[in-house]
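Hello Y.,

Per our agreement to keep a running log of every chain we model this quarter, I'm adding this entry. I've kept the format consistent with earlier entries: sequence first, then predicted structure.
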Amino acid sequence: MDNDLVCCTNIGKQVFPNTFTRLMKRKIEELELPSIRFHDLRHTSASLMLSIGIHPKVVSERLGHRSVTITLDTYSHLLKNTQSDAAVGLSNLLSKKKYLIH
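Predicted structure for the entry above:
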């Protein structure tokens, strides 16, 4: 049975949101992890992607944001080194002899 569902039971029926919440809570307790909400996984995913250098536009698309501006407004605090990285990168590029202006 194909109901065009993202997640379904083993017989193709709809899985209700509280089912995920209940299963997640059970697994968190079993693994003795700090309690978080199911929706927090979305923020965790975005934060981790940005922290390893995934381009904000890609993160924005994965989150389904209408614009990368929404992503940057929400997560820009995770991009602390962006300005210094840009300055160092440009400095390194310009210090190469072939780019120097004579």
